[in-house]
Amino acid sequence: MAVDPRGRERRQRTPQGAKGLPQPKAPTRQPDAEERLLVERLKVKDQRAFETLYRRYCSRVYRHAMALVGIAPEAEEVVQEVFLTLYEKAKTFRGEAAFSTWLYRLTVNAALTRLRRRKRNREASYEDYLPKYEPDGHHLGPEGSVVDWSNDVERKLASTELQRFLKQALDQLRPMDKAVVMLSDLEGVPNREIANALGLTVPAVKIRLHRARLFLRGKLAVTLGHSPF
Amino acid sequence: MAGRSIVGRADSAICREITDLLLDYMTGELDPETVAAFEEHLRLCPDCVAFLNTYKKTVQVTRSLRYESIPAELERRVRRFLRERTQKARRGR
Fold first, then answer.
1. Where are the domains of chain B?
2. At which of A85, A117, A149 does a domain end?
Protein backbone atom coordinates (compact mmCIF):
# COMPACT_ATOMS: atom_id res chain seq x y z
CA MET A 1 0.00 0.00 0.00
CA ALA A 2 1.40 3.41 -0.88
CA VAL A 3 0.38 6.73 0.51
CA ASP A 4 -0.64 9.73 -1.53
CA PRO A 5 0.32 13.29 -0.58
CA ARG A 6 -2.90 13.72 1.37
CA GLY A 7 -2.06 10.78 3.58
CA ARG A 8 -4.58 8.39 2.09
CA GLU A 9 -3.44 4.93 1.24
CA ARG A 10 -3.81 3.79 -2.34
CA ARG A 11 -3.28 0.43 -3.95
CA GLN A 12 -0.50 -0.08 -6.47
CA ARG A 13 -0.38 -2.50 -9.35
CA THR A 14 1.27 -5.80 -8.59
CA PRO A 15 3.89 -6.47 -11.27
CA GLN A 16 4.90 -10.04 -12.02
CA GLY A 17 7.95 -11.40 -10.25
CA ALA A 18 10.95 -12.76 -12.13
CA LYS A 19 9.58 -16.30 -12.13
CA GLY A 20 5.88 -15.56 -12.44
CA LEU A 21 5.03 -14.90 -8.81
CA PRO A 22 3.10 -11.68 -8.29
CA GLN A 23 5.10 -9.31 -6.15
CA PRO A 24 3.57 -8.03 -2.92
CA LYS A 25 2.45 -4.47 -2.77
CA ALA A 26 5.44 -2.15 -2.74
CA PRO A 27 5.65 0.74 -0.32
CA THR A 28 6.46 4.26 -1.45
CA ARG A 29 10.09 4.44 -2.53
CA GLN A 30 10.61 8.09 -3.41
CA PRO A 31 9.78 10.44 -0.58
CA ASP A 32 7.87 13.36 -1.98
CA ALA A 33 8.90 16.95 -1.36
CA GLU A 34 6.01 17.36 1.07
CA GLU A 35 7.23 14.46 3.18
CA ARG A 36 10.75 15.89 3.36
CA LEU A 37 9.27 19.20 4.44
CA LEU A 38 7.13 17.49 7.09
CA VAL A 39 10.20 15.76 8.50
CA GLU A 40 12.13 19.04 8.57
CA ARG A 41 9.23 20.69 10.43
CA LEU A 42 9.05 17.75 12.81
CA LYS A 43 12.70 18.34 13.71
CA VAL A 44 11.65 21.69 15.20
CA LYS A 45 8.73 20.00 17.00
CA ASP A 46 5.99 21.28 14.72
CA GLN A 47 2.81 19.66 16.09
CA ARG A 48 0.90 19.84 12.82
CA ALA A 49 3.70 18.13 10.92
CA PHE A 50 3.78 15.44 13.59
CA GLU A 51 0.05 14.81 13.36
CA THR A 52 0.15 14.74 9.56
CA LEU A 53 2.91 12.14 9.64
CA TYR A 54 0.94 10.20 12.25
CA ARG A 55 -2.19 10.15 10.10
CA ARG A 56 -0.14 9.19 7.08
CA TYR A 57 1.72 6.28 8.66
CA CYS A 58 -0.22 5.07 11.70
CA SER A 59 -2.10 2.40 9.80
CA ARG A 60 1.06 1.00 8.25
CA VAL A 61 2.91 1.00 11.59
CA TYR A 62 -0.06 -0.70 13.27
CA ARG A 63 -0.23 -3.37 10.56
CA HIS A 64 3.48 -4.11 10.94
CA ALA A 65 3.14 -4.13 14.72
CA MET A 66 0.23 -6.59 14.55
CA ALA A 67 2.17 -8.82 12.17
CA LEU A 68 5.09 -8.86 14.59
CA VAL A 69 3.54 -8.95 18.06
CA GLY A 70 0.15 -10.43 17.14
CA ILE A 71 -1.69 -8.92 20.11
CA ALA A 72 -3.72 -5.72 19.69
CA PRO A 73 -2.84 -4.05 23.05
CA GLU A 74 0.86 -4.64 22.42
CA ALA A 75 0.53 -3.38 18.85
CA GLU A 76 -1.05 -0.21 20.28
CA GLU A 77 1.95 0.20 22.61
CA VAL A 78 4.27 -0.23 19.64
CA VAL A 79 2.45 2.50 17.68
CA GLN A 80 2.68 4.84 20.68
CA GLU A 81 6.36 4.13 21.16
CA VAL A 82 7.23 4.50 17.48
CA PHE A 83 5.57 7.90 17.15
CA LEU A 84 6.93 9.19 20.45
CA THR A 85 10.42 8.15 19.34
CA LEU A 86 9.76 9.79 16.01
CA TYR A 87 8.84 13.02 17.78
CA GLU A 88 11.74 12.94 20.20
CA LYS A 89 14.47 11.73 17.85
CA ALA A 90 13.48 13.42 14.60
CA LYS A 91 16.62 15.54 14.77
CA THR A 92 18.75 12.41 14.51
CA PHE A 93 17.17 11.47 11.17
CA ARG A 94 19.77 12.53 8.63
CA GLY A 95 17.85 11.48 5.54
CA GLU A 96 20.49 9.02 4.33
CA ALA A 97 17.88 6.25 4.27
CA ALA A 98 14.25 6.66 3.28
CA PHE A 99 11.93 7.92 5.99
CA SER A 100 9.91 4.71 5.59
CA THR A 101 13.07 2.67 6.31
CA TRP A 102 13.54 4.59 9.53
CA LEU A 103 9.95 3.86 10.48
CA TYR A 104 10.45 0.14 9.75
CA ARG A 105 13.47 0.19 12.04
CA LEU A 106 11.61 1.94 14.86
CA THR A 107 8.65 -0.42 14.52
CA VAL A 108 10.73 -3.58 14.40
CA ASN A 109 12.87 -2.46 17.36
CA ALA A 110 9.81 -1.70 19.48
CA ALA A 111 8.18 -5.00 18.51
CA LEU A 112 11.33 -7.09 19.01
CA THR A 113 11.78 -5.69 22.52
CA ARG A 114 8.34 -7.02 23.38
CA LEU A 115 8.81 -10.35 21.62
CA ARG A 116 12.10 -10.98 23.41
CA ARG A 117 10.42 -10.45 26.76
CA ARG A 118 8.07 -13.31 26.05
CA LYS A 119 8.89 -16.88 26.88
CA ARG A 120 10.53 -18.56 23.93
CA ASN A 121 8.27 -21.61 23.96
CA ARG A 122 6.16 -20.27 21.10
CA GLU A 123 9.11 -20.61 18.73
CA ALA A 124 9.17 -23.99 17.05
CA SER A 125 12.26 -26.01 16.26
CA TYR A 126 13.06 -25.21 12.63
CA GLU A 127 14.89 -28.50 12.14
CA ASP A 128 11.68 -30.52 12.29
CA TYR A 129 10.31 -28.69 9.25
CA LEU A 130 13.37 -28.09 7.06
CA PRO A 131 14.06 -30.37 4.07
CA LYS A 132 16.06 -33.52 4.74
CA TYR A 133 18.53 -35.13 2.37
CA GLU A 134 20.20 -38.47 1.80
CA PRO A 135 23.94 -38.57 2.54
CA ASP A 136 24.58 -37.93 -1.20
CA GLY A 137 22.57 -34.67 -1.02
CA HIS A 138 19.45 -35.83 -2.87
CA HIS A 139 16.00 -35.50 -1.34
CA LEU A 140 15.28 -38.02 1.40
CA GLY A 141 13.58 -41.23 0.32
CA PRO A 142 13.12 -42.86 -3.09
CA GLU A 143 12.55 -40.69 -6.17
CA GLY A 144 9.07 -39.17 -6.10
CA SER A 145 9.01 -38.87 -2.33
CA VAL A 146 8.55 -35.08 -2.40
CA VAL A 147 4.82 -34.50 -2.88
CA ASP A 148 3.71 -31.55 -5.00
CA TRP A 149 0.81 -30.23 -2.95
CA SER A 150 0.93 -26.76 -4.50
CA ASN A 151 -2.51 -27.17 -6.09
CA ASP A 152 -4.13 -28.55 -2.94
CA VAL A 153 -3.84 -25.55 -0.62
CA GLU A 154 -7.02 -23.67 -1.56
CA ARG A 155 -8.90 -26.95 -2.08
CA LYS A 156 -8.08 -28.26 1.39
CA LEU A 157 -8.01 -25.07 3.43
CA ALA A 158 -10.70 -22.40 3.53
CA SER A 159 -9.38 -18.86 3.19
CA THR A 160 -9.94 -17.99 6.85
CA GLU A 161 -8.39 -21.28 7.94
CA LEU A 162 -5.33 -20.60 5.78
CA GLN A 163 -4.98 -17.08 7.19
CA ARG A 164 -5.23 -18.40 10.74
CA PHE A 165 -2.71 -21.17 10.06
CA LEU A 166 -0.23 -18.74 8.47
CA LYS A 167 -0.45 -16.29 11.36
CA GLN A 168 0.18 -19.12 13.83
CA ALA A 169 3.11 -20.39 11.77
CA LEU A 170 4.60 -16.88 11.51
CA ASP A 171 4.30 -16.54 15.28
CA GLN A 172 6.57 -19.56 15.62
CA LEU A 173 9.39 -17.91 13.69
CA ARG A 174 12.28 -16.33 15.54
CA PRO A 175 11.50 -12.63 16.03
CA MET A 176 14.12 -11.32 13.60
CA ASP A 177 13.13 -13.90 10.96
CA LYS A 178 9.53 -12.87 11.37
CA ALA A 179 10.50 -9.24 10.80
CA VAL A 180 12.36 -10.22 7.61
CA VAL A 181 9.39 -12.24 6.27
CA MET A 182 6.96 -9.48 7.19
CA LEU A 183 8.97 -6.79 5.39
CA SER A 184 9.88 -8.94 2.39
CA ASP A 185 6.86 -11.10 1.67
CA LEU A 186 4.06 -9.06 3.20
CA GLU A 187 5.27 -5.55 2.38
CA GLY A 188 7.51 -6.08 -0.65
CA VAL A 189 10.44 -4.15 0.79
CA PRO A 190 13.71 -4.80 -1.14
CA ASN A 191 16.38 -6.83 0.65
CA ARG A 192 18.82 -3.89 0.77
CA GLU A 193 16.26 -1.74 2.55
CA ILE A 194 15.43 -4.57 4.97
CA ALA A 195 19.12 -4.99 5.73
CA ASN A 196 19.39 -1.27 6.43
CA ALA A 197 16.31 -1.22 8.64
CA LEU A 198 17.28 -4.29 10.66
CA GLY A 199 21.03 -3.74 10.87
CA LEU A 200 21.80 -6.90 8.88
CA THR A 201 23.82 -7.58 5.74
CA VAL A 202 21.93 -8.41 2.53
CA PRO A 203 23.24 -12.04 2.53
CA ALA A 204 22.07 -12.39 6.15
CA VAL A 205 18.61 -11.14 5.16
CA LYS A 206 18.47 -13.68 2.32
CA ILE A 207 19.58 -16.55 4.56
CA ARG A 208 16.96 -15.68 7.19
CA LEU A 209 14.24 -15.25 4.56
CA HIS A 210 15.05 -18.55 2.85
CA ARG A 211 15.18 -20.52 6.11
CA ALA A 212 11.92 -18.98 7.32
CA ARG A 213 10.24 -19.83 4.01
CA LEU A 214 11.51 -23.41 4.22
CA PHE A 215 10.10 -23.66 7.73
CA LEU A 216 6.73 -22.25 6.63
CA ARG A 217 6.71 -24.64 3.68
CA GLY A 218 7.32 -27.58 6.03
CA LYS A 219 4.54 -26.44 8.37
CA LEU A 220 2.13 -26.05 5.45
CA ALA A 221 3.05 -29.51 4.13
CA VAL A 222 2.30 -31.09 7.52
CA THR A 223 -1.00 -29.22 7.79
CA LEU A 224 -1.98 -30.65 4.42
CA GLY A 225 -1.10 -34.17 5.60
CA HIS A 226 2.30 -34.57 3.95
CA SER A 227 5.88 -34.99 5.08
CA PRO A 228 7.59 -31.63 5.68
CA PHE A 229 10.61 -32.84 3.72
CA MET B 1 23.57 -18.24 -1.20
CA ALA B 2 24.96 -21.46 -2.60
CA GLY B 3 28.60 -22.48 -2.44
CA ARG B 4 29.97 -24.46 -5.40
CA SER B 5 28.69 -23.57 -8.87
CA ILE B 6 26.32 -26.06 -10.52
CA VAL B 7 27.16 -24.81 -14.03
CA GLY B 8 28.10 -27.66 -16.38
CA ARG B 9 26.98 -30.46 -14.06
CA ALA B 10 23.17 -30.39 -14.03
CA ASP B 11 23.07 -34.19 -13.97
CA SER B 12 25.34 -34.37 -10.93
CA ALA B 13 24.04 -31.25 -9.14
CA ILE B 14 22.42 -32.40 -5.97
CA CYS B 15 19.03 -31.43 -4.62
CA ARG B 16 20.51 -29.68 -1.58
CA GLU B 17 22.37 -27.27 -3.89
CA ILE B 18 19.21 -26.64 -5.90
CA THR B 19 17.28 -25.84 -2.70
CA ASP B 20 19.99 -23.35 -1.72
CA LEU B 21 19.47 -21.53 -5.03
CA LEU B 22 15.66 -21.30 -4.85
CA LEU B 23 15.46 -17.78 -3.42
CA ASP B 24 17.90 -16.30 -5.94
CA TYR B 25 16.23 -18.24 -8.77
CA MET B 26 12.83 -16.79 -7.89
CA THR B 27 14.12 -13.23 -7.70
CA GLY B 28 16.06 -13.55 -10.96
CA GLU B 29 19.42 -13.02 -9.29
CA LEU B 30 21.19 -16.03 -10.82
CA ASP B 31 23.44 -15.63 -13.85
CA PRO B 32 22.11 -17.16 -17.10
CA GLU B 33 24.51 -20.16 -16.99
CA THR B 34 23.37 -21.07 -13.46
CA VAL B 35 19.70 -20.65 -14.46
CA ALA B 36 20.28 -23.02 -17.41
CA ALA B 37 21.94 -25.62 -15.14
CA PHE B 38 19.22 -25.16 -12.50
CA GLU B 39 16.46 -25.71 -15.05
CA GLU B 40 18.28 -28.66 -16.57
CA HIS B 41 18.38 -30.27 -13.12
CA LEU B 42 14.63 -29.65 -12.78
CA ARG B 43 14.10 -31.48 -16.08
CA LEU B 44 15.81 -34.51 -14.57
CA CYS B 45 14.52 -34.36 -10.99
CA PRO B 46 10.76 -34.53 -10.22
CA ASP B 47 11.46 -34.14 -6.48
CA CYS B 48 13.08 -30.74 -7.06
CA VAL B 49 10.16 -29.69 -9.30
CA ALA B 50 7.73 -30.62 -6.52
CA PHE B 51 9.89 -28.82 -3.97
CA LEU B 52 10.13 -25.67 -6.13
CA ASN B 53 6.35 -25.64 -6.72
CA THR B 54 5.57 -26.00 -3.03
CA TYR B 55 8.19 -23.39 -2.06
CA LYS B 56 6.65 -20.95 -4.56
CA LYS B 57 3.18 -21.74 -3.25
CA THR B 58 4.32 -21.05 0.31
CA VAL B 59 5.61 -17.62 -0.70
CA GLN B 60 2.41 -16.93 -2.63
CA VAL B 61 0.12 -17.75 0.29
CA THR B 62 2.32 -15.83 2.73
CA ARG B 63 1.97 -12.79 0.48
CA SER B 64 -1.81 -13.20 0.62
CA LEU B 65 -1.78 -12.77 4.40
CA ARG B 66 -3.57 -9.63 5.52
CA TYR B 67 -3.45 -7.81 8.81
CA GLU B 68 -6.22 -5.44 9.68
CA SER B 69 -5.78 -1.67 9.51
CA ILE B 70 -5.73 0.33 12.69
CA PRO B 71 -9.26 0.49 14.18
CA ALA B 72 -10.66 4.04 14.12
CA GLU B 73 -11.14 4.19 17.89
CA LEU B 74 -7.60 3.02 18.53
CA GLU B 75 -6.26 5.54 16.01
CA ARG B 76 -8.06 8.38 17.85
CA ARG B 77 -6.97 7.12 21.25
CA VAL B 78 -3.30 6.95 20.26
CA ARG B 79 -3.56 10.38 18.59
CA ARG B 80 -4.95 11.87 21.84
CA PHE B 81 -2.24 10.15 23.86
CA LEU B 82 0.50 11.44 21.58
CA ARG B 83 -0.94 14.97 21.59
CA GLU B 84 -0.95 15.05 25.38
CA ARG B 85 2.55 13.65 25.64
CA THR B 86 4.07 15.96 23.03
CA GLN B 87 2.32 19.05 24.44
CA LYS B 88 3.58 18.14 27.89
CA ALA B 89 7.08 17.72 26.49
CA ARG B 90 6.91 21.15 24.81
CA ARG B 91 5.71 22.82 28.01
CA GLY B 92 8.54 21.17 29.93
CA ARG B 93 11.23 22.46 27.57
1. 15-66
2. A117
